[in-house]
Design brief:
mainly alpha; 8% strand; globular
Length: 174
């Protein structure tokens, strides 16, 4: 599916109950991560649900990246599918320049998600951007490999680039 097709499908759906159902269906189709990938290092902080996200080179486009992610909530898995349409297959520079907020606005998600879901969604966007930035740093130092997330964690641990960057001041895990 393309991003344009997703936007078109959202426009065809009548109300938000149908759109939420569509997101849940997208989430159910999303391939998950292995248990070995569901680590604290891959966890996105600031999400209400448990979310794990890894970034790796996209095998279909040289220099591009793709994200793979999983969650314990189907609606969040649907949001992950939307983020994959926005970011997968792009270079780190393209990821950093992508206007995810505009796309999410076209879908109406900025106005129809609960505040905690919206915070979690933008925490995932910030995590993706942080990993893309870390990938640029890794490329400039000549490090290569399969898993950008693991490399970012290993080489930038002191800067926190391998972990979620969204700040959540509340003690409650979102």
């Amino acid at each position: 599916m393309t991003l344009e097709k997703l936007i078109s499908n959202f426009e065809l759906l009548g109300d938000w109950e149908e759109r939420y159902g569509y997101l849940i269906d997208l989430g159910k189709k999303l391939p998950g991560l292995s248990d070995a990938e569901k680590t604290e290092a891959n966890r996105v902080q600031g999400c209400q649900a448990m979310v794990w996200l890894v970034m790796e080179p996209d095998p279909e486009r040289a220099g591009a990246l793709r994200i793979r992610a999983d969650s314990d909530a189907f609606i969040v898995r649907g949001l992950i599918a939307v983020l994959q349409l926005i970011f997968n297959g792009r270079t780190p520079d393209e990821i950093l320049k992508a206007d995810a907020k505009s796309v999410l606005g076209k879908l109406g998600l900025d106005n129809h998600l609960s505040p905690t879901r919206k915070n979690g969604l933008f925490a995932m966007v910030e995590r993706i951007r942080a990993l893309a930035g870390a990938s640029l740093q890794l490329r400039s130092t000549g490090l290569k490999g399969r898993d950008v997330t693991a490399q970012a964690e290993a080489s930038n641990a002191s800067e926190g680039l391998g972990k979620g960057t969204a700040k959540d001041p509340s003690p409650e895990r979102a």
